[in-house]
Structures are given as C-alpha cells and as structure tokens.
Amino acid sequence: MTIAHDAVILAAGGSRRLGRPKQLLTVDGEPLVARVARLALGTRPSRTLVIVGAYEDDVAAALAPCDVEIVANTAWTTGMASSLQLAARALHGRGRPVLLTVVDQPSLMASHFAALLAAHDDGRDTVSAYGDALGVPAVLRASTLARATALDGDTGFRRLWAKVPPRAVRADELGEDLDDEADVTRAMAAGLLDDPRNKLA
Asked: Which end of the chain offers a freer environment for a tag, N or C, measured as fewer CB atoms within 10 Å?
C-alpha cells in the first residue's frame, strides 16, 4: 500500500540551452509535462502541484487533461530554489512526504516512483541515484521541503543531504536528461521522444 503523500512537479524552467520548451516535447504525442503528471497522479497523491514559469500558458494548456494544481512562479528566472519555496509554502503544515520530480528525464517510468515510495520510511529522504549523483525524483520528508527557504538560485537539496544522508534507489537511466539538442537527438534515436521528422505530412 502506497504511503500517504503529496507530489510536486518542477516545470518552470526556460530550457535556455535547448532553446525551446522541453516541457512540451512529446512521447507518443503526449507532452512530457503531461506524461510526468500522469505518472505522478498514478501514485495517488493527496495533492499534486505543478510549478510553472517559462512558457506558462502553453505548459498549463498541456496539463488541461490532468487533475493537478498549477502554481505560477513569477520568479522562475532566479532558479529552481524559487519553485521549491513556492511548493513549501503551498504544502506548509500538511506534514506528509512529498514526491518531487522534474519533466526532463525521458526514461522515467511509474515503477521508479513506486520504488521510491516503497523504500521511504520518513526517517530520511529517499532519492534517485544515477552515476555518482543523488537527485530527483525523490521523496522528501515534510521537514526537508520546509527547509527550501535556506536555498537560493539553482541550488537543490543536495547540500542539505550532507547532514542527513538519504536513502538511495538506483536508476542509472535517469542520468540522461534533456539539456540541449544533442540530448534530444539521442532520446529520439532511443525511441524515448517523438521525432517530428517521422510524422507524415
């Protein structure tokens, strides 16, 4: 049985290196942001927040079929910390773990969300491990999310984990994200993203 939890999807970035919104790249015709929302909703969170910023209207439109709460981050250009702080304020006082994820890991599957939630015992955060890195998706304790006020810029929670090392669930495939056009080309070649060149005119 899945633990009671909320979910937060970070989708506010400007995709500066890619030059177009990665949130709206598609898999089988489904925008990445909607796909990740669908996978997160499949874990049955009590509340599901999607933090939007750049391309706000288009990203919100892509989420129309999803039963999520859209939270606009007007300070998205300052970095990820501002989105985490919005999430912390929105979920303040709820006291339950939070499934935190992003939209630019095309290999992400529902089974990994399930593994993170199954491993979590609230004694420490539960994070994904790929290569030598620890990161998202993650299941954060409510107390960890509340500490987002201590972050700034593009700083995530990794420096907070130095004090209380998290539990890690390995998923090396998630180390391949979508930062630039070369990443997108590799993902299309692997069948992880739609290739618009294959569409019939």
From this structure: C
Asked if 169 contacts 116 with a C-beta cutoff of 8 angstroms, the reply is yes
The residue behind tokens 């400007």 is 14
Domain that holds residue 23: 6-192
When divided into structural domains, the chain yields a total of: 1
Contacts of 35 (CB under 8 A, 6+ apart): 27, 103
Return d(Cα 104, Cα 125) in angstroms, integer: 21
What is the residue type of 87?
A: A
pTM of the model: 0.93
| Residue 191, token pair as written in the block | 């069948």
Kindly state whether residue 198 falls inside one of the protein's structural domains. Answer: no
pLDDT, tens digit (0-9, with 9 covering 90-100), for 148-174: 877 776 666 776 777 778 999 999 999
Q: Which residue has the tokens 């609230």?
A: 122
- Asked whether residue 199 is assigned to any structural domain, the reply reads no
